[in-house]
Amino acid sequence: MRRIILSTESGSDLPRDLAEKHAVQVVPMHIIMDGTDYLDGSLPIKDIYDYYERTKKIPSTAATNAHEYHEFFSKIKEDFPECFIIHIGYTSKASSSFQNAKIAAEEFEDILLVDALNVTGGLTAIVMYAVTLLEKEPTIEPARLVEKIEAKVPKSRLAFIPGSLDFLRAGGRVSNIAYLGGALLKIKPCIELIDGKLVSTKKYRGKMSGVAEKLLRDYLNDYNIDRGQIYFLYSIGFNEMIMQQMDQIAKEAGFEHIKWIQAGAMISTHSGPGGFGIAGLEY
Predict the structure, then answer these.
(1) Greatest CA separation found in the chain?
(2) Tell me, what's the pLDDT at 184?
């Protein structure tokens, strides 16, 4: 029986403890700041926020390139001889990373790829779904496992509220007029993944404590989320009291497991400090 190894990008924000526990291999994406290219995960998030405070600019982000993917897949084969690799990738609608993975995979005979059409916790939810399937049926055929993962991709739901409109404006994702209006009215946009694309949907007004609760209740009303697991996302600076509040609401809603995920560099670069998000899988 050939072992199946799962892999994904750092843009999944898959917690290190889960990656290590389930031997999920993670390839880093890139953060470019002050002319230096950093591998995602090697740069403290605080440095990104300090850079913005100093320059009023945000770093740029870049996909993993095809050469890096080739080295990544080769290393997995070296560490796990005769394995079959299933790579669950960052949405192809927002990055060239998945296409680069496809280019690299052409030189191997035993790699299958899944476009998760999601990012951060939404991608983690799909990766962990694949982990669960594989643990329940370790002898499953790779193609069959991919079929099951792909069937779940449209059911992964991600919604998050950036912690700062400053970062969205600095990245060119909101106009100055929209920024000024939002700042004056204390409006916080909700960003969701729709067909693999980041889309601004609802708008919330007020302090994050109230906004986070509204987002969670709307999320649970809009989607029939599997009560087995929910993922909460946060960026540095998010209030711990609000975390406790979200935990309580999730428990009252019947969730068996609640996992908090800190946003990595890819998401933090665009969302700023104090952001909050939710990810889960529909039945």
Answers:
(1) 61
(2) 40
Residue 124 sits in which domain range?
A: 4-32+61-152
Burial class (CB in 10 A: 0-12, 13-18, 19+), 278: buried
Question: Does residue 132 contact residue 22 with C-beta atoms inside 8 Å?
Answer: no
In this structure, is residue 141 part of a structural domain?
yes
Question: Can you read off the two tokens belonging to residue 49?
Answer: 């926020």
Q: How does pLDDT run across 229-271, given as a tens digit for each residue? A: 999 999 999 999 999 999 999 999 999 999 999 999 988 988 8
| CA distances, 15 to each of 45, 150, 176 (Å) | 15, 22, 35
Evaluate if residue 128 carries a pLDDT over 60: yes
Spatial CB neighbours of 45, under 8 Å, sequence gap ≥ 6:
235, 236, 262, 263, 264, 265, 268
- Residue 66 pLDDT level (bands cut at 50, 70, 90): very high
pLDDT at residue 186, as a whole number: 67
Q: Which amino acid is located at 258 in the chain? A: I
Q: Which of 132, 152, 172 is the last residue of a domain?
A: 152
Clarify whether residues 8 and 85 are in a common domain.
yes
Domain tally, the chain? 2
Q: How far is CA 103 from CA 98, 113, 187, in A?
A: 9, 11, 42
User: What is the pLDDT of the chain when averaged over all its residues?
Assistant: 91
Q: Which helix (H) or strand (E) holds 170?
A: helix 165-170
pLDDT tens profile 261-272:
999 998 898 888
Q: Is residue 38 part of a domain?
A: no
The CATH number given to whatever domain includes residue 77 is: 3.40.50.10170
Amino acid at 113: L
